[in-house]
Each structure stands twice: as C-alpha cells, then as structure tokens.
Write a structure and sequence with these properties.
This protein is of the alpha/beta class. The protein has a single domain, classed as TIM Barrel (Alpha-Beta Barrel). It is built from seven helices and nine strands; from the N terminus they run βαβαββαβαβαββαβα. It has a nine-stranded mixed β-sheet with strand order 7-6-5-4-3-2-1-8-9, with helices on both faces. Helix 1 packs across helix 2. The longest helix is centred in the last third of the chain and has 13 residues. It is globular. The structure holds fe (ii) ion. Fe (ii) ion binds next to loops.
Amino acid sequence: MMQKAIFHLHTHCSKDASIQPEALLDFALKHDIKILGVTDHNSIQGALEVQELALRKSSAVKVIVGSEIATESGEVIGLFLKKDIQSRMSVLKTIEEIKSQNGLVYLPHPFDTLRRERIRDKSLIEQNEKWIDVIEVFNSRCLKRKDNRNAAIFSDRFQKHQLWGSDAHFLYELKNCIVEMPGFENQNDFLEKLKYAKPIATKKSYRGFLQSILRKYLFF
Ligand SMILES: [Fe+2]
C-alpha cells in the first residue's frame, strides 16, 4: 500500500528552523503522513526526538533518523543513522561514516546555484558517484527550476534512486513536498521501494527560504 512521506526536513534542532516534534507529529497525523525523514543540520537529535514521541504516542508514523551534514565542500544527507557525524570532513570521509553506520547517502539539492552549501565541485560528485544511493531531484527551496532539472538529469545518467525533498524548516513548509511510496522494512527494502515512489505535491518555498536566512543571521 502506498504511504505518504515527507523527506529532508528540519526541526528546532537546526539553528535556522523552528518545527517542534509535537507539531510535526500532529501535522503527520492530520494529513495521514506515515513516513518522516528528519534531517537536521549536523545532528540526529531532532530525528530521535520525533521518533521517541511517535513511539510514545503509539502512532503509525515511521521516522527515518537522518542528518544533513556539512562537509568541507557542501552538504550530504545520511539516512538511517545511529549516531552523529562530525561536520567539515571531506565528502568521501563523510560518505564513509554514513556507510559505516549502514546508512544511505542522499545528495540534497546538488545543483542549486543559489545555495552556498551545495557541492560546487561537480567532479567530487562524479568521483564518489558509486556511493550515492539517492539523488534529490526536487527541493522546495531550490528556486530555479533548471537546478532541480539538472539533478534529475544527473540521477538518470547514473541510474540513481530519486527523491523529492521539502527541506521544510517551518511548519507551513511541510505541505510543499509530499511523496508517496510503499511501506518498507529496512534500508535495503527502502531503496527497493523507492522505485515506486512519486511526488504528489511539489511547491516552491520562497517565504521559507528567506525566513531561514533571517533566522540564521538575526535569530528571528
Ligand atoms: Fe536542508
């Protein structure tokens, strides 16, 4: 059976985000979201909090524990993590850490030309291509359509699994990007089921993009 999912989202554990676990879970229950891929900056704390709350409430929401890790050359997401991964390491070392935890490597907004944290050196992506499990082919905060399209072209070229990320930092951004996919058991099954994943909402988030910048630098 297909289930609704939101991937690439931030909680209050990210400096530029404000989503509280309680509110996130309320949103999921209200909108029948069954899978949440929580990926705070350099920390799995937010994902663990949401997971713990989901279990405590005996909800059917499955939380994928992840983190969006700042490498020395741009951001890489690890999914199915068990512990934090240090930031500012090389892309390869970060990928090795993710793999050593049996995690999956998810490349967020790889070609977003408006974003400082993308991997600018494309040869780094190509060199490490075999370790990448999932490419984010749409990100709601990627404001130029061409940049998302380039990610899709890359994923087609290397035959990678595709995902669509909300990159939600605020509650109102959660609805921007919703994916449908079959339920899964574990990491390998997740990858298998991604073959059937498809987006059912893909909206851009101009407001969220600006609000995060303000929050980060002015503590709004
Ligand atoms: Fe993000």
